[in-house]
Amino acid sequence: MATSVEKAGSVPEHCPGTESANAGKASACAGCPNQQICASGPKGPDPGIQLVKERLEQVRNKILILSGKGGVGKSTVTALLGRSLAAADKERNVAVLDIDICGPSQPRVLGALNEQVHQSGSGWSPVYVDDNLSVMSIGFLLSSPDDAVIWRGPKKNGMIRQFLSEVDWGTLDYLLMDTPPGTSDEHLSASTYLSQAGLTGAVIVTTPQEVALLDVRKEIDFCRKVNIRILGVVENMSIFVCPCCKRLSEIFPAATGGAKKMCEDLKVPFLGSLPLDPTIARYCDEGRDFVGDLPNSPAVDALNGIVTRLVEMCDSKEE
Questions:
Q1: Annotated binding site for [4Fe-4S] cluster
Q2: Whom does it interact with, and what assembly results (predicted)?
């Protein structure tokens, strides 16, 4: 079996494959660094894939929120998108699933930090932030917000499967999944479990500077390799407006043209830019509704434009 960093074309010619009964036992497996893993791993399709498909049948749009690098405001953007989608249409049911297992932020950002999850015969019940906005996170299952989640990959993957297959979401128009930075276990698990559940696509969050865009290009490559449709890129913290003198400043200078230029080069949809607003950070720390409390803010105006384009992309049948 080839390692995860090897190209598909470099898989040994006689490799039986991970789903074969001879995985890790065939003569071609001798000397392979993954021999023991293949020999002891489960064979055949993961039954969790079918469970997730059945559970999410009533969820119309399933969207992964990705970022190549940490610190670009991915969790904040996820929460803002959820609030804006829910506020724009009270008949629209929206949910946020926090699958950043080691760094769950959504309970605090959405103002549900001390809530508890209840379980019934139909599964876990998500926490409702508003009548048409709910959230689920491992943060609700910890005894303290300061508790560290020190898990290896398989346990994190199992938790993601539980969230996707055992939460009673009901009928949803949008399920936004807040993922950790990068392209690792959580992303592979989510894309695998959602492979037959009709994953709508991914929104990628970045900041304008090249060091962030470098990792976003890898995220775009990841999506293309695992056949995830890219709904668009959101450029966060694009410009700072001084609340005192109203002067515009580029805190993260777009030396190479920023996210918009990158999207043009890579032929990826550009959803829009969000300004750097200190009020957003304060509201998220306090779990308050920035979208509802400050509807005339330039940041909310930009956010509503992004949401409009996102809805259009979700409704579009173009691949």
A1: 15, 29, 32, 38, 242, 245
A2: Heterotetramer of 2 NUBP1 and 2 NUBP2 chains.
